[in-house]
Amino acid sequence: MEEVVKLLKEKNLYIATMESCSGGGIANAITNVEGSSSVIKFSAVTYSNEFKIKMGVNKETIDKYTVYSMEVAKEMAKQISKFANADLGIGITGRINCEDPANVGGDTSLIYVAIYEKDKDKYNTLTLNALPKSRSENKEYIIKAISKELEYLLG
Fold first, then answer.
1. Fewer CB within a 10 Å sphere, N or C end of the chain?
2. What is the rounded distance in angstroms from the CA atom of residue 61 to the CA atom of residue 155?
3. Neighbours of 153 (CB within 10 A)
4. pTM for the complete prediction?
5. Which ranges constitute the DSSP H helices of the chain?
6. What is the DSSP letter of 96?
7. Pairing mode, if any, of strands 40-45 and 15-19?
8. Domain 2-154, classified CATH 3.30.70.20, yes or no
9. Which of 69, 56, 53 is nearest to 113 (CA)?
10. What is the mean pLDDT of residues 99-124?
């Protein structure tokens, strides 16, 4: 994330994250970089539907598409950008190969990532397939994929 923080600083941009399955890993990776306090505004880990909704995700979107969908990832990204008044918002949702008794159905290996660009009112999306590895290895995989995408968007 060093390159991402450098590019955010150069462009005078702020970033915020609303993470679910990544458990705050993106925010952690950003804040591991010296000087990151000048680019990260806010981060929320919203594991439950209840707190996604409290942070602005529309309950009807969750009901219609499930909490594990690109539609929800997009709302997470946009709502966290709005909440934190950040230029970029990242939303991440997925199960990383786990069943969720509270939210049944769908492919448990898909991870949905949306990066919202406030000034363009535009979403950049990634759908990742969880690896047949440990949860921590999958989180690292997600962080690397998002870091690459951010470098591309900001570069």
1. C
2. 32
3. 14
4. 0.97
5. 2-10, 25-31, 49-54, 59-65, 70-84, 135-154
6. S
7. parallel
8. no
9. 69
10. 93
Question: What does the pLDDT average to over 73-85?
Answer: 98
> In angstroms, what CA-CA distances link 31 with 24, 36, 117?
11, 5, 20
Across the beta sheet with 40-45, the strand order is 40-45, 15-19, 88-94, 110-117, 122-129
Give the model confidence (pLDDT) of 23-56 as tens digits.
Answer: 999 999 999 999 999 999 899 999 999 999 999 9
Angle, CA 107 vertex, CA 104 and CA 113 arms, to 5°? 105
Q: What distances in angstroms separate CA 42 from CA 27, 36, 45, 88, one per listed residue?
A: 9, 12, 10, 11
Residue 121 tokens read as 């009112």
Q: Dig out the tokens for 125 from the structure.
A: 């999306």
Instruction: Tell me which of 41 and 129 has the higher pLDDT.
Output: 129
At residue 105, does pLDDT exceed 80?
Answer: no
Query: Any idea where the domains of the chain sit in the sequence?
Result: 2-154
